[in-house]
Structure formats: C-alpha cells, structure tokens
Amino acid sequence: MRYAIISDIHANLAALDAVLADIDRRGDVDVIYHAGDLVGYSAEPNEVVERLRERAIAGVAGNYDSTVATGYAHCGCRSESPRQEELAELSYRYTLDVTTAESKRYLGGLPFSLDLRPLGGHTHGPRLVIVHGTPTLNTVYWTEDRSDEFCLKMAKHVALEAGDAIAFGHTHKPWHRMVEGIHFVNTGSVGRPKDGHWAAGYALLDLGGTTSHVEHVRVPYDIERTVVSVRAAGLPEEFVEFLRTGGKQAVAAKS
Ligand SMILES: [Fe+2]
Questions:
Q1: How far is the CA of 255 from the centre of ligand 1 (A)?
Q2: Ligand 1 centre from 210 Cα, in Å?
Q3: Which of the two ends of the chain, N or C, has the fewest CB atoms closer than 10 A to its terminal CB?
Q4: What's the average model confidence in pLDDT over 51-64?
C-alpha cells in the first residue's frame, strides 16, 4: 500500500493544492491521509477544510484543530519570545474569528489518532499509526534529536512492533529513522515548513509489501497566491517572511 501523508497545512490552500496535484500526477498513491493542523497562520482555513472534505481525505486533529474547535484559550503552540507569543495570539484570534461553525464542527470531530492496516484487519500487521504530535498529546514536539528511547516509549503507547510505522507532524521539519524495525516518520509541513526550505512538504510511505520505504517530497507552489491572501487578511508581515524563508526569520513562532 502506498500512502501519501500530508500534515500542517495551516490554512495555506495554494500549498495544499500543489501537493494534491503532485500526488495525483504520480498515479501510484493508493490513499492520502492528513496528520492535522489544517488551520492557523495563513488566511484560508475554511477553504482547506472544504478541499479535504471534497477529496474525502481523512486524518487526525492537530493542536490547532482541537483548540480552534473547542475555543480553547490558546492555540497550544510554544513561543520563545514575547513577540512570538504576540504573533501566535494574532494568528489564533484571526483563525477563531474566520473559521465557520461548520468547519469548527469538522475539526472537532477529527480523531486523535488513526490505526491503519495495509493488509487488512484479518491478519497481524503491519500497522501504520498516524498522530499529530505524539501518541500522548498533540502538543508535544517529536523532533529529530529525540532519543531512540523516547521513540520506543512512544511506540509502546500504541503497541507498535517491528515492521510497523508511525507518522506525525507538528514540528514542521521532516525526518525519518528506524528503531528496532519500526519506522518513525515526521512528514514535515505542507503549508508552513520550518526547515529553511519554502516548498511544501509531505511524505510517501510504502507499507505492507515485500519492502517498506519512506520518501520525503518537496513541491514548489504558488506562494504569491498565499502572500496576497495573508496580506489581504491583515495578518502580520512576519508570516509572509516565514513562508518565504521556510521559517528562518528571526521571530519564528512554533506551531
Ligand atoms: Fe503545526
């Protein structure tokens, strides 16, 4: 089974459309799932929700999705300076204001995790689990420098075994490694990469065949379309700079 896993779209419709076109063009992807954070930071949360619903792309609740859906006090993003916190607050208020009640209902209905079996449930494994952050919370950052012990501890929460895989996002920085035969795959971000590359990112994962394989893909998109909509929405210019630089600007809020 060939999965495409997309995460952290963050209301960037142009980036999402480019990624979907790239997946469609391949012609060999069996199914697409998302790993959450559909909204926040850019200007088109409802349009992103609508596109995923149109395409019947299932997925899980990111911290941004669950906080917007429940009207929580904060987006669940971590800030490292007062300005970052100000920017996070501006984004969150905007998103709470413009996201429709219908979109919020959809976001609120997203499951915390998905448990998939490419060979079907009538056989044991392999399994693919999808979460946004970790199997314990969607706000925890599972960065590449986490230890093998941390990875295995997380795997244990969802009873993964050798040959299984877990895919997640939240850090907006793609990485992949195998520990004791389990694939740990951070898919990167479609709409707000933070690894210094502006192009939209997603992951392809082959599981259930004779070999398993993980590939990270980057897709250039019409960033000017997103810039126009971010500016028209009155969102801070720092968000434009963030998109253009792949998160390398001085004041970068985590999301
Ligand atoms: Fe995110």
A1: 4
A2: 33
A3: N
A4: 98
What is the helix (H) or strand (E) element at residue 71, kind and residue range? none
78-86 mean pLDDT: 89
Structure tokens at 228: 């126009």
Query: Distance from the CA of 172 to the center of ligand 1, in angstroms?
Result: 6
Q: CA dist 151 to 147, 163, 203, Å? A: 6, 15, 19
Instruction: Give the CATH class of 2-245.
Output: alpha beta
Picking from 49-53, 190-194, 245-249, which range would have the lowest pLDDT averaged per residue?
Answer: 245-249
What confidence tier does 87 reach under pLDDT thresholds 50, 70, 90? Answer: very high
Going from the Cα of 126 to the center of ligand 1, the distance in angstroms, rounded, reads 27
Ligand 1 center from residue 1 Cα (angstroms): 26
How much distance in Å is there from the Cα of 171 to the middle of ligand 1?
7
- Read off the tokens for 221: 């998109």
Whether 251 shows a pLDDT value over 60: the answer reads no
Who contacts 11 (Cβ-Cβ below 8 Å, separation ≥6)? 38, 39, 40, 41, 42, 43, 44, 45, 47, 48, 95, 191
Centre of ligand 1 from the C-alpha of residue 75, in Å: 10
